[in-house]
Amino acid sequence: MSRKDHTTSQFVRFLIVSAVAISIDAIVYTMAVNDLGISEAHSKRYSFALASIWGFIANKYFTFRQTEVKIGEPIKFALLYFTSWLVNGYTHDLIHHFWNSKLVAFLNASAVAAIWNFSGQKFFVFTNQRTRARTEAAEVASNYRT
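^ thats the sequence. predicted structure below, dont judge the formating
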């Protein structure tokens, strides 16, 4: 499988995991508010936390097929999600400022955050020595071609 096909396959799996994460977020939030009487603010935090745990596990094992347990991955994942939260919010605000459309701002911010999350997980959170070595070798080879 070519590198492009491999990345495309990973991105499709990432989108599937993301769709399930959004569903978990929505279901837990709704149940916590409506059935358990938990405040909206606390419910959103619980639902986001559970969806994030799902996202970490599913992306590690399903999307990126990483089986090795690494102590730093959860920390990197949390850092990535924090920066994604910032990127999402600022992208939304910037687009909304110029286009004055909530829908356009929401969709674009979500798309940018999805690309940010996928790239961050692929190249920062769930990378391994073999992947880094291939990337470095490709960079060296491309330098010799020019």
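Helices lie at 3-34, 40-63, 73-99, 102-125, 129-145.
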